[in-house]
């Protein structure tokens, strides 16, 4: 089952600032159909990022992947401890 992250993206693409009300107005089946549809076709934001990355790579040189947003990687426990130790 897709989460609220997808629901917020879907609401943004539909110009709906109230994603929670949007969810209440549709059935779970309809929401699942939208999720399936967008798993095959990216949401507008992802398409725009891809297009801008291609333009940047063509203009500035380099790989397209260099210009795409990188997912946030959580820090390991050891990294967090090192950060806390460095603050004292």
Contiguous helical run count: 5
Helix/strand-derived category reads mainly alpha
- State mean pLDDT (0 to 100 scale): 85
Order of helices and strands: HHHHH
Number of strands: 0
Overview of this structure, please?
- The chain has 5 helices and no strands.
- The protein has 88 residues and is mostly helical.
- The mean pLDDT is 85.
- It has one domain (4-67).
Tags for this model:
88 residues; mainly alpha; 5 helices; flat; Phage tail assembly protein T
Quick take:
By secondary structure, the protein is mostly helical. The chain has helices spanning 4-13, 19-25, 28-40, 44-60, 77-87.
Lay out the secondary structure.
Blueprint: H1 4-13, H2 19-25, H3 28-40, H4 44-60, H5 77-87
Helix pairs in contact: 1-2
